[in-house]
Task: structure prediction
Amino acid sequence: MTSTEHAEFHDPLVQPGVPELPDGFFDRLMFNLHPADAASPSVIVGYGIYPARDTADGFVLLTTGAEQRNLRFSTLLGATERDGAGPLRVRVVEPNAQWRLTLAPNEIGAEFDLTWRARTPAWWGTIEVGNSSAARTCFDHLFQSGRYAGTLTVDGETVPVDGWYGQRDRSRGLRTMSGGQGLHIWYQAQFPEFAIGFLLVETRTGERLLLEGAVMGEDGSLDPIIDVRHALEFTDGLDLIGGVVRVHTASGRSYRAHADAGAGGGYMAGAGYGGHHGVSHGAEHIESDRYPLDGSVSPRTLDSALTDRLCRFDLDGVAGSGIFEFALTRSSSYRYRPTLD
Result:
């Protein structure tokens, strides 16, 4: 991974006229939304375009205390303004600083009118990873912490979301990471003065395949993360219970935070992860379903083990909240190995 600290990421989605984009090329965004105290609800929003396939698709996940509601939609890219699909519309107001997101009425009973504003600089770089197949992964990747203003409506009840936390993620390029992965973590812990964000991928034998990230400060600082150690607890269903992550940065600082993942939900299979993104369903396709959070659904039972769990964090007595994305391979040969005593 090549770091490009403090540089400006090309934030708008790729527009028509860019020549010779390969078949697997994508340009995607993802936002999450949650109260600063990690109380429900948790909302995760995504949208992506696939120019060579003339496809645009997206999703909205709403997790409450009792269930996860999933909304997925896709359409022909050529029939859009590249600003959304289905009931979702997205617009970059100021690159790397402000986005507008709106969701019209739909079958999961959620609507919103949101403005996301950055509270830290973005961390981004280019990720290049070899795979077990002939294809090679190479994509630009960004994440950045922000806060929201606006409203969220669930089942007709509207609440203000002013001050709620939200991490955004942007990726663009070719991503075909296949085979050999054991543990995946995308960690976004929000604290009052900074956010700790990183992507960590380990092989099935515990070797590090990828690490990128930084501690992103509200004072404009970026302190690159150079090492991550973890001691996590999972259920037999591969679901995260909680655990400790220790981060070391280039400046010599160390952060050790405990995560409580007991809130449940955030199963990204409901968002189409597991190989469904970029698949054409023609024009104006919409589908939805719901997962009960009673233990009957787990990362082991779904199309994808990837889970974006809203967590409470504790960093030496400082309370935080955020999304702890995780996935363990379902290979019978794999056993999770902690790297922190």
User: Anything to note?
Assistant: Residues 1-6 have pLDDT under 50 and may be disordered. Residues 2-6+21-328 form a domain with the AttH-like fold fold (CATH 2.40.370.10). The chain has one domain: 2-6+21-328. The chain has no helices and 22 strands.
